[in-house]
Amino acid sequence: MNIAVLVSGGGTNLQAIMDANRNNQLGNVCISIVISSKPDAYAIKRAEIENIPVLVLSKKEISDPREYDRRMLSALDRAQTDIVVLAGFLSLLGPDVVSRYENRIINIHPSLIPAFCGPGMYGIRPHQAAIDRGVKVSGATVHFVNRNYDDGPIILQKAVCVFNEDTPESLQLRVMTECEQVILPKAIRLIAENRVIVENNKVILLAEEDAAGKERL
Ligand code: GRF
Q1: pTM score, whole prediction
Q2: Taking a C-beta distance cutoff of 8 angstroms, is the pair 30, 1 a contact?
Q3: Domains of the chain
Q4: Is the C-beta atom of 150 inside 6 A of ligand 1?
Q5: Ligand 1 neighbourhood includes 144 CB (under 6 angstroms)
Q6: Which of 18, 31, 72, 134 has a 20 to 30 A CA-CA distance from 50?
Q7: What is the pLDDT of residues 131-141, one digit of tens each?
């Protein structure tokens, strides 16, 4: 199964995917391309170190959203992509990409959806909002992507405690290391093992033995 990983920033989630793949924890997965929306994203360096082909599709330079969508689609098709993984990718994918790869695009969001998600909720903001609201648990969610922000069927979630002394930054770090970097590789593995089914806008996770012989999404 070929995966394309889309990034915009530091690439810690990309790193977790590459590490898991190197340790044969993802099953039959090849990272066929990394696509960055920013030319200076550190994620690019991480991909180059692992000899993974990188393409920069700069949001700044390609300002027409339809042109961006067109180039994204052709890059994904050229890389023979089965699954698109948004790993800290900060733009909304266009309608053509979303419909071509329906239920084959996954995103990691740093909160327990439906809390602290939607437009503008990226970077430190979901964590700031969690602290401001005084929630006692937060976490991360891997979900399929549809045309709205953070709205598609939920695949996996993992929670951590929020402590009195937490700052948005300390919570962000805990969510990244204990949740995001754990459930994103795990979701990829489940998809590679044909264990993820979407029914009525909900994900059903199959036990290993029930997945045998099933067609991939
Ligand atoms: C992560 O918190 C991710 O959930 C969010 O962007 C942040 C950056 O991640 N969407 P990364 O280090 O670039 O993987």
Answers
A1: 0.94
A2: yes
A3: 1-101 (3.40.50.170), 109-140+156-217 (3.40.50.170)
A4: no
A5: no
A6: 72
A7: 999 999 999 99
